[in-house]
Amino acid sequence: MSVILETERLILRTWEEADVEPMAAIDQDPKVCEFLPSLGTLEATRAHIAHIKNHYTEHGFSKYAVELKSTHEMIGFVGLSIPSFDAHFTPCVEIGWRLASSHWEQGYATEASKAVLNYAFMTLGLDEVVAFTVPANLASRRVMDKIGLRYCPDDNFEHPKLAKNHPLCQHFLYRLRQADYLALMGYHPQPKALNQLLRSRKATLNDLPEIIALLNDDVLGQTREQSGTAFEPRYIEAFHRIEKDENAYLMVILLGEEIIGTCHLNLLPSLTFLGSTRLQIEAVRVATSYQRKGIGEWMIKQAIAYGNTHGASVFQLTTNKQRVEAKQFYERLGFEATHEGMKLYTQTT
Questions:
Q1: Which of 80, 116, 117, 201 is the most exposed place for a label (fewest CB within 10 A)?
Q2: Mean pLDDT, the chain, as a whole number?
């Protein structure tokens, strides 16, 4: 089981075998299934969860199990999926939710969906997210409105998996594009060409040569990294340690298919600040040829968005005293030099 997102009250995670029976009970609730073609069964729920797991393996995202932080009760799902039918708006990525009726009208669907939407645009770098439902499903449509999706009557469609005379055949489609989401969140748009091509993702082992090259593409980095040895054993061992750490996230920034930036993020649970979670931002690099183009600012915003979706309330970083321009850059983004940083080296690296 992996935690994907956290909100104030909820944990969104991958699925466990113990989730099958409570999800089956949700799928068999007539209130929950009012706008679905039929009530569920235990076998259908088990198959659905297996499909979700396969979807996650294939695409890197899925519908996530939703768990209450207060009681650790699994109350349904919220997440992303790729519809398996053809329509005028497919292929696409859909955001959807299904929660136990005993937990309706408490804002959980909106809270979780906002986090998933942020994750879709800011971490996965999706261009557009859609949602759809039948006209009579006013509760779901209100959630779509609250999270910023937009309805256009021209997008109404008949669900191809239902007979045309079926009472649930007619569907309303809601959409939201990444550029519109960024505007809603108050982000300053990058130049159009850059905004279309820039995206972030989790680093893979195959990215190591380019990541090490970025770390070395720097006056200070050249004094401590080994150029051209991305697969030197210590680098590989370090990558695997980072990959196994649930609180660590090694991010790469791509322009088209070229890796032009990287940063290392660490979530730090803390007793201070009333038990807050901090996000430590380290090893921030942008390729020299792409500096002073707004990419560093975009990357830091990606890092902050990642922290927000994982419950971080304090964002911190350090920069070498020789990096005067870097200090000025972080100050422009709102960071304050509140502490004096210190290091102790205990062995030769």
A1: 201
A2: 90
Record the tokens describing residue 16, joined without a space: 């466990």
- Spell out the alpha helix ranges (H) of 119-201: 138-146, 178-184, 192-197
Helices (H), 102-249: 108-118, 138-146, 178-184, 192-197, 208-216, 233-244
Tell me the three state secondary structure of residue 230.
Answer: coil
Model confidence over 104-147: pLDDT tens digits?
Answer: 999 999 999 999 999 998 888 889 999 999 999 999 999 999 99
Would you say residue 41 lies in a domain?
yes
113 and 206 share one domain: no
Of 264, 267, 256, 255, give the one whose Cα is nearest residue 212. 264
Domain that holds residue 276: 192-332
pLDDT single digits (tens) 199-220: 899 999 999 999 999 998 876 7
Do 115 and 211 lie in one domain? The reply is no
Q: Is the dihedral of CA 184, 190, 192, 194 positive or negative?
A: negative
Cα angle 146, 8, 123; round to 5: 70
From its phi and psi, is residue 283 left (phi > 0), alpha (psi between -120 and 50) or beta?
Answer: left
Amino acid at 204: T
CATH of the domain at 34: 3.40.630.30
Other beta carbons within 10 Å of 319: 18
pLDDT of 251 higher than 60: yes
346 within a domain of the structure (yes/no): no
Number of domains in the chain: 2
Mean pLDDT, residues 80-88: 95
User: Mapping DSSP to helix (H, G, I), strand (E, B) and coil, where does residue 223 land?
Assistant: helix
Task: Give me the sign of the Cα torsion angle 54, 60, 62, 67.
Answer: positive
pLDDT beyond 50 at 191 = no
